[in-house]
């Protein structure tokens, strides 16, 4: 019955990787807490890099700075 | 003042159905808790079937399996 | 499979009222979207009035003002 | 280390405004709580006006009513 | 930079189990997506069984029914 | 109408600081987006340090390590 919400930036995560995340976190809840995998829900939110900030700056700006560094 | 967040898979919910969900859940909070409908907020998140997992599998995979069953 | 999160202030909601909210919103999702009630999850978060603000003011402060009004 | 989630309607917020929100809320957490800005995360969710309800009505419907008022 | 939110019922999860969940899900994001563990945040919410419903019923009620079954 | 959710560790934030956070973020949404403060909602979630992880470790463990450093 656990719910897991994974929030990541929208930067080309494939359907296969999403499936791996969902399978992996479901198994983790079985292993650590003995939860029933059949009712474990995992939702992945992909967030635009303009809409995600860390250190007071959007990820879009940080990616641009990283790109310009030698 | 209550906040309600409804998360469903993105599978063709119409604007009319969204309106029915919002009206229905707002009325429920009036009926059960006596909340003021004017300040009751309802947000519906539609999530891609690739991004929603249950039982360790994405909904996309489950829909494909269901389709292939006789 | 839908998930519903209801956030309300912590002001003495009874176990019976919580049960009514959960039953009511689950039925609404059956009626409007034809969702399976067996996998519909509803989580109620109760939030202290010090931790909830509207109009730039905590609910604690607003309740105090309301109380002092004739 | 704080996390901030800002949910607004999707109505043409610019990248510059998003940057201002992220910078402003990060600074607020430094000023009020002395938090480290380097690990402060801000995520902005833009929600379609069909998917946001207040007073039992979608914002889409409310915008239409406002437009028709003299 | 990913954020993970794990919501489970409040039923005696130990500090050691929480640590295992946090370490496990952080490693999963490294393995599947190559994310930086240093900025991966995991938050565990424990929810009272009165406040969690599935199948239109609180977990409290479901635990009571299970207990009475032979 | 915006909603803001601030999640911080539960480490002695005062009612006054919460009021400052709520007032500050509400004003920010007025200044940057011209939002109506009367319908701006801010919710602060305080999370136990056992339930918050970063870098694969709970904050409880990190605080203990910091304390033991000369």
TrEMBL record, chains A, B, C, D, E, F:
Keywords, sorted A to Z: Isomerase
Record protein name field: Tautomerase
Enzyme Commission number, as recorded: 5.3.2.-
Protein family per UniProt: Belongs to the 4-oxalocrotonate tautomerase family.
One Gene Ontology MF term: isomerase activity
Membrane-spanning intervals of the chain: none
Entries under SUPFAM superfamilies matching the protein: Tautomerase/MIF
Species per Swiss-Prot/TrEMBL record: Moellerella wisconsensis
InterPro entries: 4-OT, 4-OT-like_dom, Tautomerase/MIF_sf
């Amino acid at each position: 019955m656990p719910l897991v919400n994974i929030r990541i930036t929208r930067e080309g995560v494939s359907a296969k990787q999403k499936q791996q995340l969902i399978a992996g976190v479901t198994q983790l809840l079985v292993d650590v807490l003995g939860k029933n995998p059949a009712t474990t829900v995992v939702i992945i939110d992909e967030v635009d890099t303009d809409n995600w900030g860390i250190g007071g700056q959007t990820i879009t700006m940080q990616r641009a700075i990283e790109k310009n560094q030698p």
